[in-house]
Design goal:
This protein is mainly alpha-helical. The chain has nine helices and five strands. The chain has one domain: Rhomboid-like (Rhomboid-like fold). A three-stranded antiparallel beta sheet has the order 1-4-5. The chain has a two-stranded antiparallel ribbon with strand order 2-3. Strand 4 and strand 5 form a beta hairpin. Helix 5 packs parallel to helix 7. The radius of gyration is 20 Å and the shape is globular.
Length: 259
């Protein structure tokens, strides 16, 4: 299931949504040097600027790739007194990681969701508020991911958590909007319009199932499901504190005309 567009027109150009997309692309292609997959430079950037739960819960202890290919951190019993190369401080990584991505597919998927749903959330509030909401959503998402495994040495990167907050906000503000969605059923695909609440509920369900079906601390196939859950719940819970210019007549586009 891939959303393609919604039916709510924005009342102003989504400058910040476009800016975030541009920043994420520049970071991925320029700073990380990423194309179809990350090379050595990208791996080094992810390790240094990705948010590693262990570094966040053990401030001052840095992590590095050991000779066995695994990430080891200062202070771990198996590391002993050896020192890792200095990394970016944890308080830098929690923000930097929001604009980094692990692959081109990861980047493309996140930016598609941000473009479809982020423009209307930006339109529902002042631009300063949107920046604050987006960053706090990303922090809330990372917090839940860290809490589920405080000793994890796996770097977390991606805008997914902050975008999940945008999705949660959209579900609250515009549940009856229509979303043009590409549906795959084995080898058959079709394009249909679905209520936004259904699309977002299905997306959220796809985060809950693997998150709670795997042991805490597992890699989850490289996907930070609890970050997605944390961001989505944050967006749902706080959006009414931020949105002061909601598009109240958003259903007009699909309302049956009366003659």
């Amino acid at each position: 299931m891939i959303p393609l567009k919604d039916d709510i027109p924005t009342r102003r150009f989504p400058v910040l949504t476009v800016a975030i997309i541009a920043i994420c692309c520049v970071v991925y292609f320029g700073f990380e040097g990423g194309l179809w997959s990350l090379g050595q430079t990208g791996d080094e950037r992810v390790l240094e600027y990705g948010a590693i739960p262990y570094e966040i819960t053990h401030p001052g202890d840095d992590c590095a790739v050991a000779s066995d290919g695994n990430v080891r951190c200062e202070g771990q019993p198996e590391v002993g007194g050896s020192q890792a190369p200095a990394q970016a401080p944890w308080y830098v990584t929690v923000f930097a990681s929001m604009f980094m991505h692990g692959s081109l597919l990861h980047l493309a998927g996140n930016m598609l969701f941000l473009w479809i749903f982020g423009n209307n959330i930006e339109d529902s509030m002042g631009r300063g508020r949107f920046v604050l909401f987006y960053l706090l959503g990303g922090l809330a998402a990372l917090l839940l991911q860290v809490v589920t495994d405080t000793s994890s040495t796996i770097p977390t990167v991606g805008a997914s958590g902050a975008i999940a907050a945008v999705l949660g906000a959209y579900a609250v503000l515009y549940p009856r909007a229509r979303v043009v969605t590409l549906i795959f059923i084995i080898i058959i695909f079709t394009v249909i319009q679905l209520p936004a609440l259904l699309v977002l509920a299905l997306w959220f369900g796809l985060q809950l199932l693997p998150a709670f079906s795997e042991p805490l601390g597992s890699s989850g196939g490289g996907v930070a499901y609890f970050a997605h859950i944390g961001g989505f719940l944050f967006g749902m819970l706080v959006i009414k504190l931020f949105a002061d210019n909601v598009h109240e007549d958003y259903e007009a586009a699909h309302r049956i005309p009366v003659y």
